[in-house]
Amino acid sequence: MAARRLIVDVHTHVYLPRYANLLRSRTSVPRIVSAANNEDSERLLILDHEPSGGRPVGAQYWQRDEKLKFMDMHGISMSIVSSANPWLDFLPASEASKIALELNQDLEDYCETSPNLNGTRLQRLYGFGLLPLVPEITTSTLLETVQQISQLPHLKGLIMGTKGVGKGLDDPALDPVWAAIERAKLTVFLHPHYGVGGNPWGEVENGHVLPLALGFPFETTIAITRLILSGALDRFPSLRILLAHSGGALPQLSSRLASCIHHDPLVASRLNHDARYYIGRLYYDAVAYGSEELEFVSSAIGRAINYSPDGKSAVDIGSRRMMFGTDHPFFPPLSATEKWPSVTENLDAIEGVQTWSDGEKDGVLGGNALTLFDLQE
């Protein structure tokens, strides 16, 4: 009988009870409201102009038992759980700083009291904390929160949106924060929320299909590219950033980006390397839903070795920087007994990459995450 494969989900969310109650107390988006025709049901309005009055939400969004039940149903060994967007973006600085500390401790408790992975001292749940990244927040408050996260043993990094403190991730005001994250050896999970503007998408006809399918990945692409162009990855060479949705369009457009930089001396002077080099410095979830997409991203990552100044790179096999994810509890199946397509399609996509060996597939499924988050026994 073949041994069960280790599967680690690095892209899986929770609305912790404290956070869900905050959303219930609000009168504007983001908020949780009772469904119009069923007072026992609730709906989440996370973006402006939600179609159909928002998305149905329930216990799977905040109850740990539901998370574990989902994991058991799909053979997922461990999960690195993160608070879902929009995080604290909508709060004033004083309130955001207080609730960030509370939610980080809540998430530590959520993970620390989870079951052990069979036969090991590891837990089944670990987490990404969050920072109060809002305008008017002080650097000292952000550094205090980074320190808190680094001292909570079951938090292995932090989830971050694309706005920073309102001016983007390339804002020089964030340099002390990047430095603190790098020193603490935390991983930043970069995740979108706002898309790239609503006007091009035709929401009336297409709902949120285009903003989610294209707007979210483009948002990530723009945010991480601005960070690269700022020289931050040169200033902080050990900073670890995990990109949602397989890096958006960055792998596909990296050579075009490199060409445009080459023809702009002002921008080129900020960087120590060809833009394609930085593709191999990042990490990527494998939430792409297709083998061809995963194979391309892997190839683009591995190509970074060609742009290393000494002809060497720590990333000579692109799959080593890629990790399985599900985006749970979003995109549920229509039937409660049905397996989630967001799981089965992404597992099939990993299995279907013809250029990956079984060992590489095992790495993407779980081994790479164990290494990144230092979860080896």
From TrEMBL:
<feature type="domain" description="Amidohydrolase-related">
    <location>
        <begin position="127"/>
        <end position="260"/>
    </location>
</feature>
<dbReference type="InterPro" id="IPR006680">
    <property type="entry name" value="Amidohydro-rel"/>
</dbReference>
<dbReference type="InterPro" id="IPR032465">
    <property type="entry name" value="ACMSD"/>
</dbReference>
<dbReference type="InterPro" id="IPR032466">
    <property type="entry name" value="Metal_Hydrolase"/>
</dbReference>
<keyword id="KW-0456">Lyase</keyword>
<dbReference type="Pfam" id="PF04909">
    <property type="entry name" value="Amidohydro_2"/>
</dbReference>
<protein>
    <recommendedName>
        <fullName>Amidohydrolase-related domain-containing protein</fullName>
    </recommendedName>
</protein>
<keyword id="KW-0210">Decarboxylase</keyword>
<comment type="similarity">
    <text>Belongs to the metallo-dependent hydrolases superfamily.</text>
</comment>
